[in-house]
Amino acid sequence: MNVVLNESxxxxxxxxxxxxxxxxxxxxxxxxxxxxxxxxxxxxxxxxAAEYNKVLFIDEKGFVDGITELxxxxxxxxxxxxFMKNETVLQRDYIPIFKQxxxxxxxxxxxxxxxxxxxxxxxxxxxxxxxxxxxxLPVDVAVFNPExxxxxxxxxxxxxEDVRKWIIGKDDFEYVKERNRPIKDAEYRRKLFNQVVNNxxxxxxxxxxxxxxxxxxxxxxxxxxxxVFNEDGSLKVVVGCGVNxxxxxxxxxxxxxxxxxxxxxxNNLQDIIFNVDKFGNFIFLNPAWEKITGYKSDxxxxxxxxxxxxxxxPSSTDTxxxxxxxxxxxxxxxxxxxxxxxxxxxxVYLEEIKVNSEVVGYRGTASDITDRKKVEEQMKLxxxxxxxxxDLKSKFVGMVSHEFRTPLATISSSVELVKLISEKxxxxxxxxxxxxxxxxxxxxxxMTELMNEVLLISKIESGGVSASFDKIDLMxxxxxxxxxxxxxxxxxxxxxxxxxxxxxxxQNMTHHILTNLISNAIKYSSDxxxxxxxxxxxxxxxxxxxxxYGIGIPEKDQAKLFTSFFxxxxxxxxxxxxxxxxxxxxxxxxxxxTIDVKSTQNKGSSFLIKIPSNL
Length: 615
Fold this sequence. Notes:
The chain is an alpha+beta fold and 615 residues long. 41% of the residues lie in helices and 28% in strands.
């Protein structure tokens, strides 16, 4: 027996209860670098051997403490793994020896398992790698043995590690019992498992499961099972996987609901909705087609678009292809079509449908605008009649104004003759006649101004007034208007940093605008006889403010100032026509300009006009 143990590759050491060596083999001496024959060690004390040999091990303290613990407990320990500094891996067994329950010694055995350990480690690493891969997959993965017992389950299938460990070696019947789920779930899975196992074509089985979660929401899982066979054709394992398709199912339901709503919407629209293929043949018509045309949709499915819409307003011989412009869109076309209810006018919109950049057809709408067209025609006739009436009014106003001019001129001449004749009378009579003839002249002047403004308004309304633009110095016009009002004894201040401002304007209209605003400022001023004209040249426009310090304009009247014949409520005793500002605004509109007013009653008014400088 000693010969056999001595030749063994397993290092062995037998110690008595006093830790004296009873037996040691050559493999032990070689392992611990003991340079002597094993027989020479018999009887030696090993109590310090652990301290001596600990330098050979990576965990020196652990090696010593382990021996001490084993000797203290005297309990058999097998397959303990130790790591030496020279990268050797050992498997140690400790066997206490008892004789009639009396401890008499122990046996140490050390077996070199480096290759086996490294191989197992590599196998374990590979196993861990594939488990990590499977656990990282966003799908449930389970592997079953031929008896439908679980061999592996990944984290996605069962997140809790303790449950994953528990289920290995168990089946679905045990699982549903543990989880308080209906047994029919396990029965259903077993039925599908048997279907996979008995499938000679090795085809996978696909099925869908649904659950009600604790929050009351539904969860949907799409599962697949596929058999894996050995080379001899026997079943090796069955691999199952499951994908959470809850969002997909929810989206499909939403899509179905949306499609139903869209279908209901399309079917209830008053306008025709249609689709045609790329050749112009109808492939869809909504119910509005029948309501508008009186024809069944089925009668026109397959017929060409142009067959029905050939009678285009006013007339057309277009082909379908000619209707589609370069962008694939038909902004709109109006068609006169025959229906079972008589002729109707349809307004048609058409645009292309593309799949992978290729035109596969067109979608469109057709609106019944028959009534609108009738209204438009009636409006055209009404507008024509209104234009004729306006023309008649303008001619009448022009005629009346012209007819008034002649008698007014005659009256004015007669008044002047009366003045000349009255010079021969005595002074008292002359003064009386002169006083009344001046009043007559003032009224003639007012009537003439009124006729001129009415005639101008008439021309404006009939479109007979247009602007004649030229490069003009605005400052020159302002100075001229100031000089024309010198007789009034008003202080007119021109405030501007620019001595010359060249604008592309109509000189006469600009003169008229400034004359009206300055005349009004003078007319409606009270005791303070000052008018300020503030001119500022800015990047895009020239602003001209005409400010007075007179009676002002009531706030409630300011919005109506540019309405024909309107006069503020606080100037009833002052002469005027209520047309001057209307003309001013029209002339500014022709220049692309604006006018704004700010006024406080009894403090004065400010009229601000802006004329584009790049006109």
